[in-house]
UniProtKB/TrEMBL annotation:
Keywords: Membrane, Transmembrane, Transmembrane helix. GO terms for molecular function: metal ion transmembrane transporter activity. Belongs to the GDT1 family. PANTHER family: TRANSMEMBRANE PROTEIN 165, TRANSMEMBRANE PROTEIN HTP-1 RELATED. The chain crosses the membrane at residues 28-48, 60-78, 122-143, 155-173. This is GDT1 family protein. GO terms for cellular component: membrane. It comes from the Bacteria. It comes from Edwardsiella tarda. It is found in: Membrane.
Length: 174
């Protein structure tokens, strides 16, 4: 749980969580969507980790997991880039789909693959990684709910537009 929560700090999905709550309000509904999206995404990630472990001898697996964790240590030093904008739709389904897609190939998903390969306890790896994601994103739910009234006002919409424009330019440049 703690390794996934640490990998999530400063991650693009934290910004996504903030934007989802600021856009839709309804932090509890978005929390449910994030939890479900993470459970499904990390289930498959941990399953892949377990399957990889079955085809490699213990020594090779130990080296691969160690190298994976060392790579993760370097990866978390670099900030993520944001790849898009939140569109309309039902808050739950939009949040679920956008968060699920944002987690594909993310540091926390890779960490879950490694944890699944190392520990071979699918249920506990998935529950722990999901709890780590939820705990790391909980502050963003709170901040997003506080910002939501301002982001619906005229200046708030302009600020949101500026934020999205900045993210779009950064995405093109990076």
């Amino acid at each position: 749980m703690s390794s996934v929560a640490l990998a999530e700090i400063g991650d693009k999905t934290q910004l996504l969580t903030l934007l989802l709550v600021a856009r839709f309000g309804k932090p509890f509904l978005i929390l449910l969507a994030i939890t479900l999206a993470t459970l499904v995404n990390h289930y498959f990630a941990a399953l892949i980790g377990e399957l990889v472990n079955q085809f490699l001898n213990p020594q090779m697996m130990r080296w691969m997991v160690a190298m994976g964790f060392l790579a993760m240590a370097i990866w978390v030093l670099f900030p993520d880039r944001d790849d898009g904008e939140i569109r309309g739709g039902h808050p739950f389904w939009t949040s679920l789909m956008v968060f699920f897609l944002a987690e594909i190939g993310d540091k926390t998903q890779i960490a879950t693959v490694l944890l699944g390969a190392h520990y071979q306890h699918l249920t506990w790896v998935v529950l722990g990684s999901t709890l780590g994601i939820v705990l790391a994103n909980a502050p963003m739910l709170w901040f997003g709910a506080r910002l939501q009234p301002y982001l619906t006002s005229g200046w708030g919409r302009r600020l949101s537009a500026l934020l999205f424009a900045t993210l779009g330019v950064v995405t093109l440049i990076v």
